[in-house]
Write a structure and sequence with these properties.
Elements: E1 20-24, E2 32-38, E3 41-51, E4 64-71, H1 89-104, H2 108-111, E5 114-124, H3 129-150, E6 163-171, E7 174-177, H4 181-184, E8 189-196, E9 201-207, H5 215-240
Parallel strand pairs: 4-5
Antiparallel strand pairs: 1-2, 2-3, 3-5, 6-7, 6-8, 8-9
Helix pairs in contact: 1-3, 3-5
């Protein structure tokens, strides 16, 4: 087939991610923290560990990993009201995605009866906040669990692997990796991929926003997403040396 081309910000290729940065230990009081940047999108991820588990999980001899997600008021061009008494459906959906993704690569029995909460706060939004949050949350989780090992609370790091997420989509007929807000807001197809360091898929979110897509296009988008996941997994390992801990 003939592939179309599109002019992207900073001259990015269609299968090229934005500049990604993972900065660890940005908060004094969190056991693990990471400022993740996908271009102009910035998310602060902080992991804390508490003794005990939710009531429904007691006596299970296994821990729990969960997440919370929110956008700070000045994270977009128009002020985002703080979520107080009522939570937005979008925020709840995203934090459940983050929690599911992290639990996929955590041995909850090895964790023991502790609860890890990873708070993901969007400081600045320019598309891909959920994918950035998943990617940074893993780094914060890793560091918090390492701190728990060093404190003698658990015998070994209960992580079984890494997990990261990236967006793909179709804009003006062009298949793109890691969409910024300008691209995402007019995408014909919008997709998110969450996957592990072994290439296994945790979750695919895909919608034909303005046009449906066929199996061939889905395959190409997933191939593009795999390329992004591979880069993100490499960056996670670069800042944590996780693979060297095996």
């Amino acid at each position: 087939m003939d592939y179309m081309e599109i002019d992207r910000a900073n001259g990015r290729a269609m299968d090229e991610m934005r500049e990604v940065a993972l900065t660890r230990e940005v908060l004094k009081h969190a056991l693990g923290s990471c400022l993740v940047e996908f271009g102009d999108t910035r998310v602060l991820c902080a992991a804390t560990i508490e003794e005990g588990v939710p009531g429904w999980r007691r006596a299970s001899r296994a821990g729990w990993v969960t997440a919370e997600y929110a956008m700070l008021p000045a994270s977009t061009g128009r002020r985002v009201p703080r979520e107080r008494a009522s939570r937005k459906g979008r925020s709840m959906e995203i934090e459940r995605l983050i929690g599911r993704s992290l639990r996929t690569v955590t041995n909850l029995r090895a964790l023991g009866e502790y609860t890890v909460t990873v708070d993901c706060d969007v400081i600045q939004a320019d598309g891909g906040t959920r994918t950035a949050a998943v990617t940074g949350a893993w780094v914060a989780l890793h560091d918090a669990l390492m701190a728990w090992v060093e404190a003698g609370k658990i015998a070994r790091l209960p992580l079984t692997g890494q997990v990261a997420a990236v967006s793909m989509g179709v804009v003006d007929g062009c298949e793109l990796l890691d969409l910024d807000y300008r691209e995402d807001s007019r995408a014909e197809v919008d997709m998110n991929l969450v996957a592990t360091d072994t290439g296994e898929i945790v979750e695919i979110q895909g919608t034909g926003e303005r046009t449906p897509f066929d199996r061939q296009r889905l395959g190409r988008l997933l191939d593009m997403g795999d390329k992004g996941i591979e880069k993100l997994i490499g960056l996670q390992n670069q800042v944590t040396a996780f693979r060297d801990e095996d």
